[in-house]
Automatic annotation (TrEMBL):
Keyword Hydrolase set for record: yes
Listed GO MF terms: hydrolase activity
Segment forming the signal sequence: none
CC terms in the record's Gene Ontology section: membrane
Keywords assigned by UniProt, alphabetized: Hydrolase
Domain of life: Bacteria
The keyword Hydrolase belongs to this UniProt entry's keyword annotation: yes
InterPro entries according to UniProt: AB_hydrolase_1, AB_hydrolase_fold, AB_hydrolase_sf
Residues of the AB hydrolase-1 domain: 2-102
Protein name: Alpha/beta fold hydrolase
One Pfam family, short name: Abhydrolase_1
Amino acid sequence: MWVVLLPGLLMPRRMHDHLARSLASAGAHVVTLDLLGHGRSDRPDDPFAYSVTAFAHQVVALLDEVGAGEAVIGGTSLGANVSLEVAAIAPERVRGLLVEMPVLDNALEVAIVSFAPLLLAARVLPIAFTSLRFVTRRVPRGIVPWWVGIGLDSVDHKPGPLAAYVHGLFFGRVAPPASERRRIKAPTLVVGHPRDPLHPTSDAEMLAKELPNATFDRAGSILEWRRSPERLDLMATKFVLDCWRPARRTRRTAN
C-alpha cells in the first residue's frame, strides 16, 4: 500500500510530515519526495531541468526505485499538478490521487503577477536572495514552530537555481489540459480552500467535475490542514485505504 506525497512550490518534503505519519500509522508505505530544486534535492541552473512533466517522470522513477507497481500519488499546489501529470503520463502506476489546491485555469493571472517579479528579482537582484539565505540559515529549526521552519526552508534558495526553476515552470506545461484531465480514471480526492487567489476554489471544483471518479471537499481555510489537520488527515487516510481495497466481484446470476 504505497503513497507518494509531493510538496508545494519551493517547499521541502517535510511539509507533509504530519500526514505521512497518519497514513503510515494506518499501514501505508509513505514516501515524501523533494522534487528537483526542492529541499535536499539537486538544484541545477538549467531552466530546461524544471517542468511539471519532468517532475512527474521523477515520481515514476521513484516508484521504479522502491519497487512499487502502483501508488496513491498526492500533493499540494505544485505537488497537486505533478500528481495529475503522473496520472496523465503513467496511468497504470496511479492507484489514486490526493489533490490539494491545484493551480489550473482560473489561477493563471494571479500566478503571472506572483511569479514574474520573483523571476525578475532573482535575475537582476541576486544579492537580495543571497542575503536572505544568509539570515534564515542561521535560525535553528529546532527552536521555531514547525511551520515557521517550513517557511524558512522555502526561502532558502540560491538566486541562479531559483530563477531557472521559476523560468522552467513559468514557460512550460503547468498541468494536463482539460481534455487529458477528463481521461484520468483513478479515484481522486480533491481538496480546495476558500479565499486563496493563487489556488482558487473554482479550480478545485472544476477539477472534481472533470474527473469521472472524484470527490470534492472544501477545507475551512488554507490553514486547516496545517493547524488543525485531524479532519482532513482522517479523510485522506480513509481515501487511501479505500483505494487499496480489492474491487468487489460482481455476483453472477444463473439463467
